[in-house]
Amino acid sequence: MDTKRFETEVIHKGYHALQHHGSLSPPIFQTSTFVFDTAETGASRFAGEQEGYIYSRLSNPTVAMLEERIASMESGEKGLAFGSGMAAVSAILLGLTKTGDHILCSEGVYGCTFGLLQLMEEKYHITHDFHSMSDEDSIRGSITDHTTVIYIESPINPTMKLVDIEMVARIAKEYGIPVVVDNTFSSPYLQRPLELGCDVVIHSATKYLCGHGDVIGGLAVGSNELMSHLAMTTQKDIGGVMSPFDAWLLLRGIKTLPVRMDRHCENAKKLSELLKEHPAVETILFPGDPEFPQYELANKQMKNAGGLISFQIKGDKAAAQSFMNSLQLIKIAVSLGDAETLIQHPATMTHAVVPEESRKQMGINDQLLRLSIGLEAWEDIWSDLEQALNKI
Length: 392
Ligand code: 4LM
Known about the structure:
Layout (H helix, E strand, L loop, with lengths): L5 H7 L26 H8 L14 H13 L4 E5 L2 H11 L6 E5 L4 H14 L2 E5 L4 H7 L4 E7 L11 H11 L3 E4 L4 H4 L9 E5 L13 E5 L1 H15 L5 H11 L2 H21 L3 E5 L9 H7 L6 E6 L3 H10 L4 E2 L9 E3 L11 H7 L5 E5 L5 H12 L3
Parallel strand pairs: 2-3, 2-4, 4-5, 5-6, 10-11
Antiparallel strand pairs: 1-7, 6-7, 8-9, 9-12, 11-12
Helix pairs in contact: 1-3, 3-10, 4-5, 4-9, 11-15
Ligand 4LM binds next to helix 4.
């Protein structure tokens, strides 16, 4: 099948019903291992001389369908599926570095990615620096002889700051350094970093790709050469792979990604306008707000602003917590990208592991809240927010 539009590929890519008894829904190959017809077949599969499945930690047909689908969605050659977003982040970062190397990172990252970077520094002497990535010369000045990866989130969790992905990719090319982008907040429907010159895209598939809050998973996409190397090293030997059932749930969720994202974006835009006007709200951080400092950049590299709104309420941590406790429809929970609207307090939840000083540098204070706007009627989400804000 030749390449079709994104909305079509999310439904069809990687699956051929007539090769599976005409089953419209793909089969779940719920098996740990695969039977060889002869000892020689097994030997030649292990030697890489013959195509075919061996063992589900190496590859599985249901998981492979998902890997083909995400590769197409991100305009990459090869996808890999992992047991969580963090399994993907760690396999990629450990695969691209060795002791003595240096990673240049965006100004903020998800709390557990921060934890992983700390661990890599303490245990393996792989150092890192956080950088605003707003100025070309300053980026060049921060690349050292030991820099082997540039790692960015855009938008950054939870401050929503953006990185000019095309600019960073262009600079990295001058030095031959791979750029890895965690694209979780946008999903490939809104932003495709490989098309902007980056080398690897990572997703916490747990979020928008799944969309229904019932899977923990990770995905990564890049060139055939690099991803095949990672598949046979940090993926296979650390072993954080995805189960066939989770891959099936993701194949199902991904079919509706474009329609879900359109609704998340519409709801978020509407709610950002209302939140911004409320007297109990100090500032909103939303790339779709015309007053957002990087509004132009958002328009340049994202199809739409996404479904996440961070905002600071007037008051202190206790005010933020009592506001959360007043909510009735909106659920207090970490994670994002689900049908349900979720709210969390980054300073004490997703980014609690980040020491206070680093949190402040990233722009996370006690007044900051992060909303993952769901698919409910925006009027109902607003009624809930408004009644809780009015109590502050
Ligand atoms: C959260 N985030 O923010 P797994 N990359 C990004 C993320 O936001 C996350 C991961 C990787 C949240 C989880 C509690 C940008 C997770 C890690 O949780 O390992 O699938 O993804 O609320």
